[in-house]
Amino acid sequence: MMFKTIAIVAGLGLALTATAEAQTPRKGGTIRMTAPYGSSFTSLDIHTTQRAQDEIYAKALHRSLYIWNSAEGKPVLELAKEDVVSGGGLVHTFKLRDDAYFHSGRKMTADDVIWSYNRIMDGSKAYPGARYVRVIEGAAAVEKGQAKEISGLKKIDDFTIEMKLTEKVDPGFYFFTALTSIYPADEAAKESFIQKPIGLGPFKFVEHVPGSRIVLERWDRFYKPGKPYADKIVVSVMGEAAARDVAFRNKEIDTSVLGPAQYVAYQSDADLKGTIVEVAEVFTRYMGMKPNFKPFSDKRVRQAINYAIDTDLIINKLVKGKAYRATSWLPLTAPGYDKAMKPYPYDPAKAKQLLTEAGYASGFEFEWTTSQNESWGLPIVSAVIPMLDKVGIKAKVKQVETAVLAEVVRTGDYQAFIYSQASGPDPQAALKCFHSATPQSACNYTTFKNAELDKILDEAGQADDPAKRVQLLQKANALLYEEAPVWFFNYNKAVMAVQPWLKGIQLNATELTHQNVEDLWVDETSPAK
Predict the structure, then answer these.
(1) Which of 79, 104, 196, 521 is deepest in the core (most CB within 10 A)?
(2) At 202, is the secondary structure helix, strand, or coil?
(3) Which stretches within 62-135 are classed as H helix?
(4) What tens digit of pLDDT does each residue of 363-405 get?
(5) Are 438 and 143 in contact (CB under 8 A)?
(6) Mean pLDDT of 107-117
(7) From CA 398, how far away is CA 402, in angstroms rounded?
(8) Model pTM?
(9) CA distance 446 to 443
(10) What does the DSSP assignment read for 42-72?
């Protein structure tokens, strides 16, 4: 089938994981996690939001057909026990678990899976998970309002569903994120569900204090025997790196995502360097350009921007080495990443030449929308502006909150934006974000359209030979490099500080903060017993 594993580049977390294996997990206690990517959660309806921040609580509250296994570097079955493949690799018959209970006490059935996927394909709502469910035959017809139900999804019995796909892909890569969580069909249709969500996860909802925290407590009927270990999880909103730093040093939180400044400080602190866990994540940081804003519609202008920016200098000086230089879209852990490909060199003279050829010898002006994020937001934009200025391009900053930026990107209300976007773990799904058939609301945020790219990606989707598929995806990635729909900035190196009493942390390359929390536990030295 599809790509079975992705390479994991892990760092200093070995001491933590080794001790976790040597000890018997302890029952009880509270796990205190942080939501580090903004000043709020967007919604308690995880189908509506693609923000990494929201998936932190959703991993505890909800479950999907598959789950990400960090040790194996691939998605594995979760709400299904078995997948029988037929129909030339396009038909999947899933045997569902018959021991998965919603927090309302009702058992999950095939009807809930079908209802959830149909809900996600409601075209009037533009749910971000539609980009994944669209791989099921007939899902696009529901999205366009041409059908009421997904034709490629059939209930065989209460615990068996048949799923017919449009492409020969491993469905695990499409159905492991919280965006495709299975909701209880009866409860989720009610208004009250959004205030008090009900899921299948190891923890049930207790309270949400907007702008502050989400509290969840153990679900005793969770289908994995003996799990979860902890009694409670508190996910506190802490968008400011300095606030997280103080709270972590004061032992008030168990996890803290480190920005570039903390990364350097913690590495040089004897008491803190042992708390660092790091992994090469499948995220690409970039500046997106609106193609119907006249200068950006010319490929030479987009290439000129890539030549005009001294990207390596920014990564070294501002990001403090907490990143890997981006060559094109696919990150270095992706099958299809081409090691021989060189990034755009810093060449202001070449940038000026391309601008002149495109008819912008005296430059132009554009508005650049950014959040305050220290790794890919305002500090980066501020460093790039003088570099662009040197070749005659003037950028005006428009600063917005992180949650607002996510909406700006999805709706196209920008001339340019700077963002961090999942570019894995499946390279085919990641590159599909540049397919002209992928809506902006799903992940084609720059509304990129290129007939040759569409053709290569469509061919990859029907390829039986995995080596042939990788070859085609490399070709697509090289075409994106040439077309430069974005400024290719960096691939993220995710770094998190973890208190020594929190055990079982997984080196999740899809997003380090997204932990399968049923496997986490705290020992008796935790202050939050």
Answers:
(1) 521
(2) coil
(3) 110-120, 130-133
(4) 999 999 999 998 999 999 999 999 999 999 999 999 999 889 9
(5) no
(6) 98
(7) 12
(8) 0.85
(9) 9
(10) --S-GGG---HHHHHHHHHH---SEEEETTT
